[in-house]
Amino acid sequence: MNQVELQKIGKSLLNSFIAAVVALVSSGESDPKVLVNAGIGAVSITVARYLNPKDQSFGIKKKAA
Predict the structure, then answer these.
(1) Are 8 and 16 in contact (CB under 8 A)?
(2) What is the pTM of this model?
(3) The predicted structure's pLDDT at residue 63
(4) In sequence order, which residues have a C-beta less than 8 Å from that of residue 58 and are 6 or more positions away?
């Protein structure tokens, strides 16, 4: 996995986390534990995509021999 792919995954993780937290804060939630848990839940989708070798954009790829 090269630097560009890692940056792409990192940006996706950060975007998911921020979107979940902003949605809860804008609805009036202020408990930090709840906000962090929501962010982790949102990030788990991208992690699952990364672990899926069949995912074309984020999936783990076999190393070339």
Answers:
(1) no
(2) 0.77
(3) 65
(4) 5, 8, 9, 12, 46, 49, 50, 52
